[in-house]
């Protein structure tokens, strides 16, 4: 089996290779149950007598495949006409002519064989390239209703069934009903939607009710002809309709034949078109610029209306217009070259491409804004609905329902729903959400198949960037995720399935996004993944209901048991399993240490847990909050003043507020084994030189400390005097992150902005993961240097959880190529040197305090 082709009322179609008969790319149609198997037997009987290139052919069958009835058929195509119309909108003139001709050829053939299809519709018309010309052609398939009793008037698909069948003398299915379905299919191709009725909704209100046919619904070049054609083909009076498929086909062909004939009015000959093109200016409407009707029809797929707008369109955009034949593609390209040569020298320079906010990485808010249509008198409702859905209206509310959007914008629910449908259709036709969809799909795959909305927001922000901050950025990014999944859901083969999570009051508390059904995995894989995530979330909630903090190994044991209980072969990493669980949970959250804890953990408990077993000798309020929030991201409400003092006293006995920070006053500075160098003694340059020269000779590692205001002088002094190579660790980290952003095709500014996020959040976790992947590579490269190295500005190692990189530097068992020195800032009131507020790693000799008044010009104490 290669892939799944689709699923219908009788069963599932699979694209397979028949190895026994050496047939590649054929379709195996499997019956879904016993009654469907009997219908396949009937379909096989019908197909066995048919042979036409526009009708699917029976290759073999009925077959028995693992107890299920099956047919082996030719492949009608991966895409159906229904898919094409849904993704691209109404057909171009060229598609109308060619696809309509193919459909009518198939129906005329069936009519000549005395066969009614009984279910003609776009979903039963496959599109595949012709083997000779490679042009797309239609093939009619699914004849499972062909032998339905003619007395059965309800067999088929609503909307395509003749609503007047069963009235008057029409008590049996007839040719008029078959041609009605064909005419509705042609109407849907030309208009983009099924017909509506003057007095009824989805069906005529009376026996003489008529379909609403408005010329402006069709392509301008053929609007009058199509209005006349459908007025007759869909008439409530059968006698007024076309008598047979051949007559219907002749009338259809005549519509397009007229376009080739020079005539007065809107159709002009080539010489007249050339004259119009020569007179064109940048402001000339394309309809008056000398383009043929078929070329104009193709350009309706692009958001251009004038010559000036067309000549700024990328050539690749013209080349990729669906439904535009090569002849008319060349016509457009020829006119574009002509107009650029004639018009651009007389105007200000213009760009050769419209700005694509996704390609230019202008940020999620710019991309979201580009999805809002240009204002016009007719689209105020759509603008309001789209603005609310995308979170651009500054209103609170997570993933609002259509009803909530309607209430917020003051329109009816029906109007809000229609506006959303129109917007997603436009986005899909123009590919506006496709690049964002690819980013989201990759993030869901990386997460193991299910992603919570906060992580989806972080993924888009990471890749696309944003100038917004805080809640505004989250709201707009969530709106962009919503736009992607809403557009995707209306496609022929949706990529995603989503599930809205509700709290006890029925309000949305979260959203899960999963990948849809895998072509290689039968069944509703996406729904099963969501079901598993919800079950994992319930298990995580049960854990935090019993305990305050669940270590990762214990949580994983419980969650793995949930996975085993499903019986599915689910392969998730530990991190994917934990994140999937907390994404669906209502109370559980994930700490930076992969512990599961209650999302509403009390600040006092969080502080106690964050400071437990920690070697803390000094702590500012900012660092305390960072430590607590870094481990427990949901705890952001630490108090201030005496209330905070009480929490600290309980969490870390011995720490007292000294006016600037919490510190343990009774602790003295740690000293090295050389009391003449550190401790309370003042260090002179001569003593310092002996120590550093000894380190150079022994290739040892030292931690050096200096007051921040003397840091720059110390670096210059050590580099000049001892010839050490200075490695700026902060710059190294930035270089590594830049490389990571480049390798992941991410916007560097967006990556850099993630550093402002609190540690432990999903956004910061992305940055931390990038650092953990790329910094060690560059670190190892720099530390292999054969000369002595001085490491400076190393605080980012603590920020990103990479202090373990320093362990080998101070390991006595390491064979270093040369001395390695780490220079850290230390103020006088600090008991020990720190890295980003954390105690700094150091060797068994502790650290060396450099003189506070290091004078680079004074060398009187230095040896000659």
From TrEMBL:
Leader sequence segment: none
Sequence ranges assigned to domain Protein kinase in this UniProt record: 1-253
Keywords: Kinase, Transferase
GO biological process: DNA-templated transcription; signal transduction
Disordered as annotated region, ranges: 833-864
Pfam family, one: RNA_pol_A_CTD
InterPro entries per record: Kinase-like_dom_sf, Plant_MAPKKK, Prot_kinase_dom, RNAP_asu_C
Gene Ontology molecular function: ATP binding; DNA binding; DNA-directed RNA polymerase activity; protein kinase activity
PANTHER family xref list: CCR4-NOT TRANSCRIPTIONAL COMPLEX SUBUNIT CAF120-RELATED (PTHR48011), MITOGEN-ACTIVATED PROTEIN KINASE KINASE KINASE 19 (PTHR48011:SF4)
Protein name: Protein kinase
